[in-house]
Amino acid sequence: MKLVSFRRPDGTPSFGKVEGDRVIDLGRPDGPATLRAALAAGTPLADLAPGAAYPLADLVLLPVIPDPAKILCVGHNYETHRQETGRAKVEHPSIFIRFADTLVAHGQPIVRPRASGDLDYEAELAVVIGKGGRAISEADALAHVAGYACFNDASVRDWQWHTTQFAPGKNFPGTGAFGPWLVTPDEAGDLADVRVISRLNGQTMQDQPVRDMIFPIAKIIAYVSAFTALSPGDVIATGTPGGVGAKRTPPVWMQPGDRIEIDIGRIGTLSNFIAHEDALA
Description:
Elements: E1 2-7, E2 13-19, E3 22-25, H1 35-41, E4 53-55, E5 60-61, E6 71-75, H2 79-85, E7 94-98, E8 103-104, E9 110-112, E10 119-120, E11 123-129, H3 138-141, E12 145-153, E13 155-156, H4 157-160, H5 167-170, E14 176-183, H6 185-188, E15 195-200, E16 203-209, H7 217-227, E17 235-237, E18 259-263, E19 269-276
Parallel strand pairs: 6-17, 8-14, 9-19
Antiparallel strand pairs: 1-2, 1-5, 1-14, 2-3, 3-4, 6-7, 10-13, 11-12, 11-17, 12-14, 15-16, 15-18, 18-19
InterPro entries: FAH, Fumarylacetoacetase-like_C, Fumarylacetoacetase_C_sf
Family: Belongs to the FAH family.
GO molecular function, one term: metal ion binding
């Protein structure tokens, strides 16, 4: 099943399942009104009563989970990216935090801030938690996954590198693209050979299979849940392959008017254009 968060024609937020070129509304005033609330309620998503049907092309999409309590990101989780950044090998995942108010949906602009022109792309597979828990074992970890989505952990590199702490460069408004939809594990299947690809203005910049992650999804969930309780709707961005713009010669920064796509095979294609902060004021 594919699930999207969207605004109804009257502007109210909801969520629904994608069937071909339509979205079947699953939000209810007397039940879960958002995808995060539906996951927290624990009712199987396939059992939710269908409502109105809308043409997908006519809807304004929202980030897959518009309001996650946590967005946890993994740094340097592909060997190609670790090598291009010169980072030492580590025994544990490198974790940093992104704020929910940085998220933008498929089709919305990623915002280049007025504070910097060093805006980089990062194609990533996002994991959405369906069943919460603490100290989840690797063996049980995948049973806690609601589904997968595309993520662009767009980074303001000079601000990221002001110190050894990543947070400033990862939390400018409008830099975390997340969509277009969530694909449930039964439809996603085995992701090992699925490739994580970014294309900037049609040119492939990153391309590597999920199997090349240094720390696989189950290990990441086990590690993260050891230090913080995971909740339904929490998001884990699992890291980006090598080929980022900052490590090219000369560096390649995303510019206003550019189109960036994150293509993860059957998980979907997330597409955004770049806009300058001043143009959106």
